[in-house]
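Notebook B, p. 112. Complex prediction, attempt 2.
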Amino acid sequence: MAHVITSPCRNEKAAECTEVCPVDAIQPGDDQYYINPDRCIDCAACVPVCPVNAIFFDEDVPEEERDYIKKNELFFAV
Amino acid sequence: MNGELYDVTIVGGGPIGLFASFYGGMRQLKVKIIESLPQLGGQLAALYPEKYIYDVAGFPKVKAQDLVDHLKEQALYFKPAVVLGETVQEFERLDDGTFRLMTDKNIHYTKTILITAGIGSFQPRKLNLENAAVYEEKNLHYFVQNVNRFQGKKVCILGGGDSAVDWALTLESVASHVTLVHRRNKFRAHEASVEQLKNSRVEILTPYTITGLSGGEEIEAVTLEHTETKETINVELDELIVNYGFVSSLGPLKKWGLNLHKNSIVTNASMETNIEGIYAAGDIVHYEGKVKLIVTGFGDAATAISSIKAYVDPDARKQPQHSTSIFEKLTV
């Protein structure tokens, strides 16, 4: 389980989340930020600070955004 | 107090460490708590003091800081030794089976260790500039400990959250000039504080990021870059405060030889780790069926303390008596 960044982050990249993440789990990608699911502790500190409401707990990711769960995982896959 | 031998030293002053401290006192153990931050309360106090928690038994709704205050009152009843601002590094087992526990600042002696370190020790998120570290003992601050130090000075504060805004407002009347720098135009702090900020004498520079520090023995100025125009400016200062929040990690605990499962310490149902005399409780623990919640952590803490009592005093009963029947007879 982890939190997931979804499409509203694309080209927004406000990065507020990176400042509040207590485990430094959030890294920048080319078009959006990603949360490392192995580091995320589900504290949800990032959720309210996101100015575009892009971050969800994985079970709560809206149906049309569910591809982003895999996208977050793949970003950190070696 | 450092040479004194304690029955149990609790590593981590969050909610579980605080409750364990109380419970240890109730079982008449000599207790010490060591916390890496300058304050007790763990994540609750450091990350979300103003948020409401709804799943603590007996509290339909409780503000995180209020829960911390209650836990502190309960924990301090039996007068444990409280050590703040020290990060536990390593331990050594002495010939008599007790432990010598080293922090970054001191040495502590204890019969048992109870790790209630949650997601690890919190450290301030540091300035990511090459020469920043050398100024840490000088005029670069990640914590404000003594407001008087800033009397009549030019102070620059970096950050956009509550800590940055609150310190800007606090120091406004103490310092000769306060500059607050944030990389976005919008602050994350409470609306009321941001409103107060706008009506204050604090100079607000947004959206700027810091790109350089200049000075000799101490920092004399910072270089700021406008995030859109890339134009740079210099701000002269006497003191620099960085409030970029906290990061946490298990850090040195990972090298203790404890059985780990991902970033958690494996215990049995008695909260014993694989190292005799070392116990763990709360979010840092992994066992079959473990659920990471404040309430289950309280349970872990009571179990751990009962195991510790039996270890320290083999004649003691493991199943505690009820507080309703024994509490008033206990000596503080």
